[in-house]
Design a protein that fits this description.
Elements lengths: L1 E5 L5 H10 L7 E5 L2 H6 L11 E8 L3 E2 L1 H9 L3 E9 L3 E4 L7 E4 L1 H6 L1 H7 L4 E4 L3 H11 L3 E4 L1 H6 L3 E4 L12 E8 L11 E7 L8 H11 L4 E8 L12 E7 L6 H14 L9 E8 L6
Parallel strand pairs: 1-2, 1-3, 7-8, 7-9
Antiparallel strand pairs: 3-4, 3-11, 5-11, 6-9, 6-10, 12-14, 12-15, 13-14
């Protein structure tokens, strides 16, 4: 079997992949791919590089939701089956004789280190690349500029460490990223004391108090909503004057929970237009609560 992740090597995605692969059978081959979209699409049987599993970043403590990942899961009808939390500590590296103010990294890493960059390099120019390790590789190749990546990645490319632990500090908590293990089969189970289930809700109409109505159903069935994210609807929706929205919600239970099943049925009943067979609620999978990997 094969498992894809956002490469190249020496990224936090690779670290998450190595931790998540331990939950699968032996002999899983790790395949680094250049973009998040390529990782998600590798699960298609029509993909040139076909894999049975994939790892995608989902949520960062400083930056929040990785919107592209969750949208690709929804659009490609993929399922979440496990999760992994990875502590993130960024470092800044450069070539020995660097005189350039260019800083290469993934856009999320650049944003997570904005305080340090503006304090120590107020005239820096940010160059976004597909991954943090790619930024380090680019600095090594060009022998110019700086890169934000893990210290391990910077060392592997022979770059000089300019600053360690340069990430923004918020509320005294250590930065982390949650990753999902995804596949095309939603019948994957593993033992855990606490599960989360991700659902996507696309209302077919708008009315006052619509979101409150959804949340009241979750409360009525004594379920706990951990997170909620809204975005413009991906599917075609014929509403009135406003731009149609959809919602991603993380419910703190397994999808087989009887109260969860009744709750989903109630939401579908309330939000599906009469006489129409429309999938208003999609269950994107259940997974154990993310735990911090070492």
């Amino acid at each position: 079997m094969k498992l894809s992740y956002l490469g190249p090597e020496n990224t936090y995605s690779e670290k998450a992949a190595k931790l998540l692969v331990e939950k699968l059978d032996d002999g899983v081959e790790l395949i680094p791919l250049p973009t998040i979209e390529a990782v998600a699409r590798s699960l298609s049987v029509d993909s040139k590089i076909h894999t049975e599993f994939a790892v995608l970043p989902y949520y960062n403590y400083l930056e929040g939701l990785v919107q592209e990942s969750i949208d690709l899961i929804y659009e490609n009808q993929l399922y979440l089956i496990s999760s992994q939390r990875v502590a993130v500590e960024w470092a800044l590296g450069g070539s020995e004789n660097n005189s350039s103010n260019f800083v290469y990294s993934h856009p999320k890493a650049l944003a997570q280190c904005s305080d340090y960059l503006w304090t120590h390099f107020p005239n820096h120019r940010e160059i976004a690349v597909a991954s943090t390790a790619e930024g380090a590789a680019k600095v090594k190749k060009e022998k110019s500029g700086m890169a934000i990546s893990s210290a391990e990645a910077l060392n592997s490319y022979g770059l000089k460490i300019i600053g360690n632990d340069i990430g923004n500090k918020r509320h005294g908590r250590t930065n982390f990223t949650d990753f999902y293990l995804i596949t095309t089969n939603d019948e994957f189970y593993e033992p855990a004391e606490q599960f989360f289930t991700m659902i996507a809700i696309t209302p077919q109409f708008d009315r006052s108090g619509l979101l409150a109505e959804i949340l009241s159903q979750i409360a009525y069935y004594d379920l706990n909503n951990a997170k909620i994210h809204s975005r413009p609807a991906i599917d075609d929706v014929s509403t009135t004057d406003v731009e149609p929205q959809m919602f991603y919600l993380e419910i703190m239970c397994h999808k087989s929970n009887p109260d969860f099943i009744r709750c989903i049925d109630a939401i579908r009943y309330r939000l599906t237009p009469r006489g129409k067979n429309i999938e208003v609620v999609k269950v994107l999978g259940s997974y154990p609560r993310p735990s911090l990997g070492s």
